[in-house]
Every structure is written in C-alpha cells, then in structure tokens.
Request: fold
Amino acid sequence: MTDKPVPVSAPRVVSLYNPANILTVVRIILVPVFLVLVVATDLTGTGARIVTCVVFCVASATDFVDGWIARRWSLVTSFGKVADPIADKALTGTALVLLSAYDRLPWWVTILILVREWGVTALRFWVIRYGIIPASRGGKLKTMLQIAAIAWYLWPVPSPFDVVGAWLMGAALIVTVATGVDYVIQALRLRRNARGD
Reply:
C-alpha cells in the first residue's frame, strides 16, 4: 500500500484592492479635503464647523473600520501596514496644526504630540529588523482621546461645555506621552533581547 502525497495548499494571496486598503486610501484622500474646508471656512460659522467636524469624524471612523475588516477577514497587506499609520498621523497631525494655526489650541500641545507620534514611527523603523512593536491598548486609547478632543474643538460646542475639549485634550496629551515612553522602553528591550546584550 503506497502513501498518497498530501497536496500542499498554496499560500493565500490577499488582493491589494480590498475593502480595508480602499478605506485607508479614502482616509488619505479626506486629509486634503479636511484641510481645504478648514482654510476656506476659517473655522467660523456654525454650519461650516459642523461640516468640517463631520468630515474629520468620517475620516477617523475609517481607521477603526479598516482595521476591523482587515483582521476579521484576514485582509492584512504590507501596503496596509505602512499606509494605515501614515494616514492616521496625517489626519490627526493636520487637524492639530490647523487648530493651533487658528489659535484654538496652544502650539506646544501640537508640537509635543507630533514629536511623540513621528518619534514612535521612527522608533518602529529603527527596531524593525529585530521585531515588530505591536499597538498597545494605551495606544488605542490615545488615538480615541485625540480624535474625541479634536472633534470637540471643531464642533461649535456652546459655552460652558466647550471647556470639555480642553479636558479631553489634556487626557489625550497625558496618555500620548505615557505610551510614547512605553514604546521607547519596548524598543530598547526588543533590541537588547535580539542582540543578546
């Protein structure tokens, strides 16, 4: 009796043109749309601010949806791994810079957050040959707080409720800095363990 060879299934190929990647591209496209809306309206006028906030929130929502789709249906691609965080940082970074440019948010807050965001991205590339630093729960909380704070600043919230935006941004800033320190520790530990130091 001869053993029949077991057929080896070919590795699953994920199309670049999948719903998760399309949503990521939509978010990238919405960044300049959001920028033009802010510049055109100067963040004045109730209607204009509502439209601007809605565009920002829709773009932000695609971040959560594309990630869920990619994980749920195993549609993770190299393009998505690179484009998704870039799209996130482009959107929140643009919003923060515009809020500071229109005197809605202190510049030091924007600078501190941007230094952390791009610093962590550079850190991940620095240790990529040793391993990948996964997104933490703190990182996800940071993203949600930043989005909530920015949306609050954009929406024409009446006084005294507008002060909630400052509290949300304060919480976002604390979590942003704390998770940034945590990523630095993870990167150094990963590099040390990989090199056997």
Q: What stands out?
A: Residues 37 and 51 are 8 Å apart (CA to CA). The helical segments are 19-41, 46-72, 78-101, 107-126, 137-154, 163-195. Residues 19-195 form a domain with the Four Helix Bundle (Hemerythrin (Met), subunit A) fold (CATH 1.20.120.1760).
